[in-house]
Amino acid sequence: MSKEIFGSDAYAPKDIAGRVCEVGMAKARLPLLTLALLGVLAGAFIGLGSLLYTLVMSDASLGFAAQRFLGGLVFSLGLVLVVVAGAELFTGNSLIAMGWASRCVSTPELLRNWAVACVANFVGAAGLALLVGWSGAMAMNQGAVAQAVVKIASAKAALPWAEAFFRGVLCNVLVCMAVWMTLAGRSVTDKIVAIVFPITAFVAAGFEHSIANMYFFPLAMWLGAPLGWGDMLHNLAPVIAGNIVGGSVLVALVYWVIYLRRAEPG
Q: What is the pLDDT of residues 50-78, one digit of tens each?
C-alpha cells in the first residue's frame, strides 16, 4: 500500500507561497477586458453572499450568536463563487503583493490590477443591488429584509474612520487567509472547506469588507435610506485602505518574509 495514502494531499505552506506568486503573476498580466469582466462577476458574487446574509439578519427570532454565525456562514457563498467559478476580487488580490515583493510583479502591474478589480467589483456589486431592488426581493418577511439592508448600511456609514480602517484590516486578514488556504487544496471540496470558517468568522465579528459594502450602500439608497454617495465614500475610503493593509502586509508580506525572502549574504 502506498505511503501517500497516509499523508496529507494538501500543499505545504511553503508550496502555497510559491503558488501564490505564480497565480499573482498571471492575475497581474490579465488582458484589461478579461480582468474587468471577471471583476464585475466578483462584485456580483459577493453581492449574492450579502443578499443571503441580509435574509438571515432580517430574522428577529434568531438569537445574537446564531444570527451572526448563520449570517457569516451563508455569506461564504460569495467567496466560494469567486474561487470555484472564477473571478477577480480586489480584496483577495491583495495577495499579489507577494509576487511584487519577489519582484515577479511590477508596481504598475500591481496597482493596475487593484484599481481595475476594485472599480469592476463596484460595478458588479452595485449592478446586482439594482437587480435585487427591481426583483421585489426586499419585500420578503413583510419588509423586514429591506429594513435590515437600511440598518446595515446606516451602521456602516456611522462608523468612525479609525474603527472602519481596523475592521477593514481584520476582515482582509481573514479573507486572504481563506484564499491562501484554498491554494493548499486540490479539490473543490478542499477549497470550500478552506473558505467557510475564515469568512464566517469575519462576518460574525462585524469586520468590514469593501466589496460587500459596495452592494449594501447602493441598495439602501435605492430603498430610500437617508444616505448619499458621500456616506458611502466615508466608509469605503478607510475600509479599502484597511483591506489593503490587512491582506497585502499582514498576510502576503508576512508569508513572503517567512518563506520567500532571500537569505542575507554572509
A: 999 999 999 999 999 999 999 999 999 99
